[in-house]
Structures are given as structure tokens and as C-alpha cells.
Design goal:
single chain; alpha/beta; Peroxisomal Thiolase, Chain A, domain 1; 2 domains; ten-stranded mixed sheet; two-stranded antiparallel sheet; 14 helices
Length: about 425
């Protein structure tokens, strides 16, 4: 067991590092583009219209889905599959792996998702009504498109990976859960490379928009780029977004052996459950999850340089997370706190992975990107170190803590440190 042991005292074959990153976000299709947008305060939220709901706003990705797929593959597969294929290939490429000579049996795929399959079923039902609901017109691709392992499975097919593949359904905590699963499988020796993170195709289903709208939790604003506004007194809900971020994870011993560049080391994590409500978060359980991750990493709250918040822009969600953070970081005057959803909206299963990725360059440049669109800070969301509207620089960053929480009370926290 390595929990509770400082990272530098752990054996190299039990230390897990990030050696490649592939992503697509509403404001960038590579880590460099994405980071530049975050530092420039550039939102990726735009006008959007979806059947039955009508005009709204969303975070839409604009990546080249034919870079790694043929047109027939895109037609047969899913949007989540295309997002995953793009991100996985980009991550492997970024990691500098000699892919043709890698033993594909020693590669595992662990993809966090919030939902999958409802997009395809909605589309089929919608099209079927034009044929008087005659099921002979129902797509024969429907079943493989809608199975829960689809995004990971499409990556496996595309890249010839014959090691384990599966998705981790963990609501909006799923991006972190993908990282955690990949790290665990590497420590167990089950694989030598883990493609891990999260993906989302949420903007393709009217059901998610309609559900949030019926709850009074779907964001709106005359300026779409200002619709996602966590912590602001005028926040009025969630901006639904799509996207993905997958990474290559390796044991430190293997990364050193091939001279890999290292983005950071996963030093701690935790997951727990609220067990109190379908939707409303429990700040006590969230605080407990953060403390468990800190204990695993063998660090104190004051050792954390940046806290990446989950805050979605809902009234109660933001307040409860801030309450939890005050419990843990209330006296940590040097810890800075930010939010990425203010730029891209809520990318559901991809959210945690994208939010971590957006902060990782802080290890090199020392800059903490801001939370944008905070015109008037809600007093219930006041936190020491909250970075608002303008990035902050000039401090060395060693430790990033990434919060991701989800419906039905699932909480995940991931801690990553600078390596070296």
C-alpha cells in the first residue's frame, strides 16, 4: 500500500505519471490552444438550438473528426466515439510512443462518461416517426452504438488495442474516475499504458437540456459567452457542453526508461458518496472526499497551490462546494482557487479531465487561470484565494487538486504534483 506515503518515497513502479494529453474542448483542440484560450479569457460557449427545447447556448467542439477516422466510420459510430478516438490518438502522439511496436495487449482504455446511448435512441425514435414507426427502418447500428462501453470500444477498434477497455459511469465525477481507474490498473501490473480520462457527447441529446430546463437549472444569457458564470450572483444554471480529454498514464519506472516528458504525477485521489439526495450535493461528504485525497497523498491542505473547482453555475451546487472548500482550505491563504466551466460550460463526463488538463501547464508557467464572468461575487461563494476574471501569476505551482462531483451524490478528487 502506498496511500499515506509521500510520493518521493514510493517505489518508481508504483508512481503514476501523465506522459501524453489529447483533448478537444469548445475553445481549443489541443492543450496549447486550450490553455491559450483560458489565459486570454476566451469562452467557447455559443448559441445553439436543439429540437423541442429551442434556442439555447452550449459548448460545441470543432475538431477534425476525419483526422483519425474515415467517413464510413464516423457514420457508423457515435459522436462520443469520435471524440474519444481523436483524443486517444492525440494523446498517444503527444506521448511520443512508438505506437506500431507497442504491445497492444498491454494497453488499457478507461473512459469516464456521464451518459451514453440516449443520443442514439432519441435520434432513432425521432426519425422513425417519419416512417409511421415501422421498426424495419430502425438502424441496425443502434445496439453497438448504445452499449455503455461504446466510446472505449470505438477507441479499441480504431487503434487496434486488444487490452482491457471499458467506460466508467460516474456522472460528472467520471473524468477523475477514469484517471483513478487507469492508475490503479497500472499499479496492479495489469497494463503498461493506460489511456484514461473522460468524454461527453451531451449536447447531442435534447433530454439533458429539457431535464435541466424543467429543473430551472439551464443557463441563459443574452451574451452566450457570459452564460456560464459560477460564483456570480446572477448565475442561473448549467451550460451543457461536449468534449473530451484522454491521457497516457504510465508507471514512473517505464516513463523514465524511455525518457518520456512528464506533465505531472498522480499522487492522491479519493471517491465517496453523499447518500443523501438525487441531485443536491452534501458539503460534508465533499469535504471528506477532499480530506481523504490529501491523506492519500500525504500532504496538508496548505500544500495545495491550485484548487480546480467543480462549480457548475447552479445556486445550490456552487454554495455547497464553497462551504466544503472553506472547511478544508479556509485558512490556506496561499492556495488559489479557480473554475474552468466558466469558459466551456459543463462537459459532463469529460469535465474533470478537461479541467485538470487546463491547469497542468501551471507547473511550467506559474499562472493560475481565472474564473471568468464573475461580475458580482455571491457572498456565499467567497473563498480565500479565489481567482476572478484575470489570471494570477508569479507563484511556483507544485500541487493541483481537482474536484469533480456528480448526481446521485458521487464525489471524486484527484491530486497531481509537478514531477522533479
Amino acid at each position: 500500500m502506498i496511500a499515506g506515503i509521500p510520493a518521493h518515497q514510493r517505489p518508481d513502479d508504483q508512481r503514476i505519471v501523465i506522459t501524453g494529453i489529447g483533448l478537444t474542448a469548445p475553445n481549443g483542440n489541443s492543450l496549447a490552444e486550450y490553455r491559450a484560450a483560458l489565459l486570454a479569457g476566451r469562452s467557447g460557449v455559443s448559441p445553439y438550438e436543439i429540437r423541442y427545447v429551442g434556442p439555447t447556448v452550449a459548448g460545441i467542439c470543432n475538431f477534425d473528426e476525419f483526422r483519425y477516422q474515415k467517413k464510413k466510420d464516423v457514420r457508423r459510430g457515435t459522436r462520443a466515439g469520435s471524440v474519444g478516438i481523436y483524443c486517444a490518438n492525440e494523446a498517444v502522439r503527444d506521448a511520443g510512443l512508438d505506437w506500431p511496436n507497442i504491445d497492444k495487449d498491454r494497453v488499457g482504455i478507461y473512459v469516464g462518461i456521464t451518459e451514453h446511448g440516449n443520443v442514439e435512441t432519441e435520434n432513432e425514435v425521432y426519425e422513425l416517426k417519419g416512417f409511421d414507426y415501422d421498426v424495419k427502418f430502425w438502424s441496425h447500428h443502434h445496439n453497438p452504438r448504445t452499449v455503455a462501453n461504446n466510446p472505449a470500444g470505438e477507441i479499441s477498434l480504431n487503434m487496434g488495442i486488444v487490452g482491457p477497455h471499458y467506460t466508467i459511469g460516474a456522472a460528472c465525477a467520471a473524468g477523475n474516475a477514469g484517471f483513478i481507474q487507469g492508475a490503479q490498473m497500472l499499479r496492479l501490473g495489469e497494463v503498461d499504458y493506460a489511456i484514461a480520462g473522460g468524454v461527453s457527447e451531451s449536447v447531442r441529446t435534447f433530454g439533458i437540456f429539457a431535464g435541466f430546463k424543467s429543473q430551472g437549472a439551464l443557463a441563459s444569457h443574452a451574451d452566450p459567452t457570459k452564460a456560464s458564470r459560477p460564483f456570480d450572483t446572477a448565475r442561473n444554471g448549467i451550460v451543457v457542453a461536449e468534449g473530451g480529454c484522454l491521457t497516457v498514464l504510465q508507471r514512473l519506472s517505464d516513463a523514465k526508461a524511455r525518457g518520456a516528458k512528464i506533465y505531472g504525477e498522480i499522487v492522491g485521489y479519493a471517491m465517496n458518496s453523499d447518500a443523501t439526495d438525487f441531485v443536491l450535493p452534501n458539503p460534508t461528504r465533499q469535504a471528506e472526499c477532499v480530506r481523504k485525497a490529501l491523506k492519500y497523498a500525504a500532504i496538508e491542505a496548505s500544500d495545495v497551490d491550485i484548487v480546480s473547482t467543480h462549480a457548475t453555475g447552479t445556486t445550490s451546487g456552487d454554495e455547497h462546494e464553497c462551504q466544503a472548500l472553506r472547511e478544508v482550505f479556509g485558512n490556506c491563504t496561499e492556495t488559489r482557487i479557480n473554475n474552468t466551466k466558466s469558459f466551456i460550460g459543463h462537459a459532463m463526463g469529460a469535465a474533470g479531465a478537461l479541467e485538470l488538463a487546463g491547469n497542468l501547464p501551471s507547473f511550467d508557467d506559474g499562472i493560475c487561470h481565472a474564473t471568468i464572468n464573475v461580475d458580482e461575487l455571491d457572498p456565499k461563494c467567497e473563498l480565500p484565494g479565489l481567482v476572478i476574471n484575470q489570471p494570477q501569476e508569479g507563484r511556483r505551482v507544485k500541487t493541483i487538486l481537482n474536484n469533480s462531483f456528480g448526481m446521485l451524490g458521487i464525489n471524486s478528487v484527484l491530486i497531481v504534483q509537478r514531477f522533479g
